[in-house]
Structures are given as structure tokens and as C-alpha cells.
């Protein structure tokens, strides 16, 4: 039986329908970003009711790196009016440079774009992205003390906290440094706080609850026999409060490139997606089954982890997220090695 519905019409119809998860989560699809491939390592955030997203990297011709494909970094900037159910994505300009794998954070003034990099180098630049009518503006903020990409970060009040990352795209060791920028005292620049007393790491998950900063998982790096970076998957969890780090209960599984900053629900936080390392080294990367679907909740009161549901959508890693009302917007990401998605959805946790 044939159907008159085109894929684009089906996607549009689905975009306004809730998609049930199980146990503690559900998802709502938003319109797909207007790029066939989608992006990993993009930046995103919300100003008023406008979702902003840009940058990131993909393989535009669809060829994977093991087939000779070339990874390309992008500078396109898109917007979506979240107040209009029938809104579509608009391309509204460009980032200051093609950039990906930095940290983006939503603040009252707009969206912070912190660090990142491209194929040749990582960046120190930090910008505040705002919209004036429909025109993007970029205000330069204090430079990072060193180039940094693949770090994690979150906001505690008016202070930006960053941890981990690498200073060069081909680094074989990661950082455990912890940097803080007070948005109300930017003349003081970035200040170094106590470093994470654990393996240095990239692609960790950050979170902020009240006055506490959390860093969880990711992977450490070391040179292999050929001098290339080799990953060790991590599942430890740490909390920084009152100037010192405290180790928490380990996560139920390793998680590299999970949603960060992690969604926060009351006095708990959610571990969503991430590469758990169980398929590393498979003979045929194209047969990868995708990343972790299980969602876990850490309760700050009991200090315990519990399963909170399963993602029914393809779980993305190295993605950008942004808070929106009672949920968290997930923008694109990587759903299998080398394979991006153009999906955008809101994760709704059970409160």
C-alpha cells in the first residue's frame, strides 16, 4: 500500500507529538536541523524563546574516516522559535570561526561559547552570543588561559566552571585543571581552582546543583605504541564544593560524551547516553549498534544511582544541550562512530 506522506511531512507531524519513554523520562521531537548529516560537537543555548545552535563537525560526503572520509568543521548558525509550534529552523549567520567540541552554556544574557577547536588547533576564545532582532552578535569575553576543547562545564550562580579537555587536537594526554570565570567580575579573568584529584579526562559530563559542581566519567588519554591517543573509559564521579573535591559513588557504567551539562531534577541529576566502551575495537565499525540507551539518576540526598528509563530515540553522544522549561533540549550529536544525526528533541524527566 502506498502513502502520500513524504518523509519531511512525517517528520513534521512527529515533531509535535510526545514520544513516550519508560519509567522516568519521555521525549518530544522538534524539527530536524536543515542539514542532511547533522553535527557532532555543536554549540547550543536559548535566548528568551529562541533556540540557537551552530558549529560542530561531520563528514559531509557521508564517507566514514576508515573509508577515507574527511571530517569538516562548520560555522553555520541556526535559530528556532520555540514559542511557535509550526516554526522551522532558520540559518541566521555564522560563528566567529568554524568550531566544535567546546562548551556552550545558557545564561540570562544569551549563550556562552567557550573554547573548542577545528582540525588544526584548539581555541582560547570565549564569546557571548546574543540576538538583536534576528541578527546574531558576538561579544568577546576573557580568553581561556590555554586552548581547550572536549572539556565539560556548568554554571553555578554567575560562575562558569570548566574541567578537563585537551589543548591540541592531537594531544595524547588530557587536563585535570579546573577553571572558573565570574561573569560579574570578568576583569579578573579565569581563575584556577583545585584540579580534579583523579585521572585527567576529556568528554566528561558536568553538572551544577545548588553550590556544587560535578564531573563524571569521560575518558583519560595516553599515547599508544604509535604515539596516538588511547582512551581509558571512566565511570567515577566527583563533586566540588567549598574549595575541595569529594568522590561520589561510581556511575553504573562508563560514559564518554554523554549529555552535558547533565539535566538536573530537584536534588538529582541524570546520566543520559554516552559511549560505555563495550563496542570499542569491533572489526566492522559500520556494524556498531549505537550508544547507551539506559538513563540513570544520581540522588544527592541518598548518594545512590538508580535506573530512570531508556531512550527510545537513537542515543546521541558529543552533543550540545540546553535547558528549556521543564526539560532539556538535545541538539544533534553522533549516534554511531562517524555517523551524525540531525534530530533535535526535548527530554522530559519525571519529577
TrEMBL record:
Residues 1-23 form the signal peptide. Gene3D superfamilies: Kelch-type beta propeller. Keywords: Signal. It comes from the Bacteria. This is Galactose oxidase.
Amino acid at each position: 500500500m502506498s502513502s502520500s506522506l513524504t518523509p519531511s511531512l512525517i517528520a513534521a507531524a512527529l515533531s509535535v507529538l510526545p514520544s513516550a519513554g519508560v519509567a522516568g523520562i519521555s521525549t518530544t521531537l522538534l524539527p530536524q536541523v536543515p542539514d542532511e548529516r547533522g553535527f557532532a560537537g555543536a554549540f547550543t543555548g536559548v535566548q528568551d524563546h529562541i533556540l540557537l545552535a551552530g558549529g560542530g563537525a561531520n563528514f559531509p560526503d557521508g564517507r566514514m574516516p576508515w573509508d577515507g572520509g574527511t571530517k569538516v568543521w562548520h560555522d553555520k548558525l541556526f535559530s528556532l522559535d520555540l514559542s511557535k509550534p509550526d516554526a522551522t529552523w532558520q540559518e541566521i549567520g555564522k560563528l566567529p570561526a568554524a568550531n566544535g567540541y567546546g562548551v556552550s552554556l545558557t545564561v540570562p544574557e544569551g549563550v556562552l561559547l567557550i573554547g573548542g577547536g577545528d582540525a588544526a588547533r584548539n581555541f582560547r576564545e570565549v564569546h557571548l552570543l546574543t540576538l538583536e532582532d534576528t541578527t546574531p552578535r558576538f561579544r568577546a569575553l576573557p580568553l581561556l588561559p590555554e586552548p581547550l576543547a572536549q572539556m565539560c562545564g556548568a554554571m553555578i550562580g554567575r560562575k562558569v566552571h570548566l574541567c578537563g579537555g585537551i589543548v591540541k587536537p592531537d594531544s595524547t594526554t588530557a587536563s585535570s585543571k579546573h577553571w572558573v570565570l565570574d561573569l560579574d567580575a570578568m576583569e579578573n579573568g579565569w581563575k584556577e581552582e583545585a584540579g580534579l584529584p583523579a585521572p585527567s579526562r576529556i568528554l566528561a559530563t558536568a553538572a551544577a546543583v545548588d553550590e556544587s559542581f560535578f564531573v563524571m566519567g569521560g575518558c583519560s588519554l595516553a599515547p599508544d605504541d604509535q604515539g596516538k591517543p588511547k582512551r581509558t573509559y571512566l565511570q567515577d564521579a566527583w563533586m566540588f564544593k567549598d574549595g575541595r573535591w569529594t568522590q561520589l559513588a561510581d556511575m553504573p557504567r562508563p560514559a564518554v560524551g554523554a549529555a552535558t551539562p547533565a539535566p538536573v531534577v530537584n536534588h538529582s541529576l541524570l546520566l543520559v547516553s554516552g559511549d560505555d566502551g563495550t563496542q570499542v575495537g569491533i572489526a566492522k565499525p559500520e556494524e556498531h549498534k549505537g550508544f547507551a540507551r539506559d538513563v540513570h539518576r544520581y540522588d544527592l540526598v541518598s548518594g545512590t544511582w538508580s535506573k530512570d528509563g531508556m531512550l527510545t530515540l537513537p542515543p546521541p553522544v558529543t552533543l550540545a544541550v540546553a535547558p528549556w522549561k521543564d526539560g532539556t533540549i538535545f541538539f544533534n550529536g553522533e549516534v554511531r562512530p562517524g555517523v551524525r544525526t540531525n534530530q533535535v528533541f526535548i527530554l522530559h524527566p519525571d519529577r
